[in-house]
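Bench notes, afternoon.
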Amino acid sequence: MDALSKTINGFILKPQYTEYLALIKAARNGAVYGAKVRFPHALVMVFLFRSGSLKEKLNIIFKATRTHARNLAIFAVIYKSTVLLLRHAPRSGKEASYDTFLGGLLGGYIVFGRNSRSSVNQQIVTYVFARVILALAKMSVQKGGLVPVQLREQVAGQAWPMFASVSWGAVMWLFRWYPETIQPSMRSSMQYIYTNADHWNGFRDFLIHNK
């Protein structure tokens, strides 16, 4: 057993195999991270807001966790494989600035773009989109960004309050007049907080237990 372990360690620690073995490690990390993130979220949301038998609820949790873990693992492999192939393409032999964008573009389309009906995929993509917008906003007020130097401090100080207020104003307007356009899990949460607050039959479902 020690000999086998030594052989495996000797193989995976060889520098010439590092960038290829990194594909396996990326798949492993994507799957583990996806499961860690999705399982507790699905557990809470399903038992709080879903009806059905225990078996049905556990099945929903399992499917959501599997989907999240699988998709992050596949995306990681596609992304790193694309970057690896481009790095070894017949050119300078160095990583170009657009390699990562192309890797993400291809992985995003294959894994997340072709199955837009998946609520898990929608949540992942909207999460990524929100982070991209925030990052681009930060870049715009940094040195070399789009915002003029004399306005950077003022814009940086007011950007977040404006972003927060517009986001909440927009989502509440959509929830009131176009609720079908909001992502299902978010719509369910908003219904629980705001719509259900308008109805009760007595003290029990007024403060102790919601209907």
